[in-house]
Amino acid sequence: VSTLVIAEHEGGTIKAPSVSAVAAAKSLSDDSSISLLLAGSGPSLHEAASHAASCHPSVSQANPLLTNKFKNPLAEPWAKLVHLVQQSGGYSHIIAASNSFGKNVIPRAAALLDVSPITDVTGISESHTFVRPIYAGNALSTVRYTGANPCVLTIRSTSFPVPQKSVDSKVDQAPISQVDLSTFDEDHDKSRYISHTSQDSERPDLGNARIVITGGRALKSAENFKMIEKLANKLGAAVGATRAAVDAGFVPNDLQVGQTGKIVAPELYMAFGVSGAIQHLAGMRDSKVIVAVNKDADAPIFQVADYGLVGDLFEVIPELLEKLPEKK
Amino acid sequence: MKIMVAIKRVVDYAVKIRVKPDKTGVETQNVKMSMNPFCEIALEEALRIKESGFASEVVAVSMGPSQCVDTLRTGLAMGADRGIHVDSTATLFPLSVAKLLKALVEVEKPTLLILGKQAIDDDCNQTGQMIAGLLNWPQGTFASKVIVDKEKQVATVDREIDDGIETLSLDLPAVITTDLRLNQPRYATLPNIMKAKSKPIKKYTPQDLKVEIKSDLEIIQVTEPPKRKAGVMVSSVDELINKLKNEANVI
């Protein structure tokens, strides 16, 4: 088993979902060799490459790719790059995280390789047998890949948590080698990157946060939604939202938790004014402890909650803000 | 310019699905079937582009058993000009769908191909990216805004990504896959439902399109997810904080 992990980096380190992809690659087989493919430009790529080479003990090689062509994560050149690297490397598996980058690039790369990708994998039972949720997680499908190499996967990062590294672990850094781009076909760019808008926040990333505080339609306005943000700040938590809250414009789209939004599995998930549509439950049902606060005692969210409180969130949240211990 | 839209017939989004006792799949007999919600958004976007004068024709395509024709009729009632049904009783995984679509693109020569970003049954989120790769067309996936410039033959697409919105400019022809907030699909009116009955639906088989349906995937079993154990109701904020601190140890 030899695996190519398609990795993303930021600020000189490998992004957490990509480290999860490495963890998934490791669980394919005991004797798997893992190579990381990174691309970008500037000194942070080199830092990321060193980090890649030591981010997991089973990484045997990091392949950073220095080129401006990959400054922005466009699917078209990336898919071609994966195809090229596969042709020279002959990997048995290609893995990326099932985030917006992996979802965009991997199926396109798989099509170029003429193989079926298996997306959003939550479990690996053998090197070619995988479990993935279907129907918004209301069923689990076990799929076997029977085609030629490579077996192409995207993995749900919450299902492949990365153990906290112990400080004294000595890891031999894997060699870093450059990808030969001489045969990369630099055709006319049919797709151009224009801009990216995001709202910077001090809060932890929704996908990896230990605590997530989510608000639903019952918050009624963007103004009221700030209560959720205040509570999140107090607990050092990330903020999530239901589709209804995003559609109503209370918060931006990237906070949506659900079947087609972010999938989260924090230690504590607190849902305020969330009814619990199956599409929302799909995004948070793997949370360890779920708390639901809702006025409606019959709300479906209570069926998955570990602790339910029937009450008016406009009374409950201020009381929580007052009584919860300050995050140290 | 012509727009092709791919639509999938799926179990209605409001149905609570049941896993078959023999673990071969999900019960679809006597279950309400509908157009995949993301495909409705894709068709709506195509119709709006046509209504703004940028396109002359919208062709809806569906693949699968004969009942797909019902879903195509719904699309025609929403306003698509004609339908194409690729008749197949075999399980069609996204790679096969993408190959069939590629063959149809070669026949129909659309300038824009719009698909839903994912189907709510298998949740694959693959077909649009795969057909774009096979055609070597640029792709704008998870679109929340699409602006077509007919003069420059360019589409500007806002994409919903993990950390915000990304804007791309794509040369036409291109593939676009739709996210939830792109538009609010219309309902078919009764006169349009009547009119849809006489709109043409052309039938193809995979053999007609010279696509061999083979699969490199095997579904071994479909099971129910583990149930969460029943929780408790608390009666006050104090009790909740106490439980979270001393029982769950999470704060």
UniProtKB/TrEMBL annotation, chain B:
Matching InterPro entries: ET-Flavoprotein_bsu_CS, ETF_a/b_N, ETF_b, ETF_beta_N, Rossmann-like_a/b/a_fold
Locations listed in the record: Mitochondrion matrix
CDD domains recorded: ETF_beta
Residue ranges of every copy of the Electron transfer flavoprotein alpha/beta-subunit N-terminal domain listed in the record: 23-213
GO molecular function: electron transfer activity
Cellular component, GO annotation: mitochondrial matrix
Principal subcellular localisation of the protein: mitochondrion
Swiss-Prot/TrEMBL keywords: Electron transport, Mitochondrion, Transport
GO biological process annotation, one example: amino acid catabolic process
A Pfam family assignment: ETF
SMART domains, sorted: ETF
Superkingdom to which the source organism belongs: Eukaryota
Family: Belongs to the ETF beta-subunit/FixA family.
Quaternary structure note: Heterodimer of an alpha and a beta subunit.
Role according to the record: The electron transfer flavoprotein serves as a specific electron acceptor for several dehydrogenases, including five acyl-CoA dehydrogenases, glutaryl-CoA and sarcosine dehydrogenase. It transfers the electrons to the main mitochondrial respiratory chain via ETF-ubiquinone oxidoreductase (ETF dehydrogenase).
The protein's name in its UniProt record: Electron transfer flavoprotein subunit beta
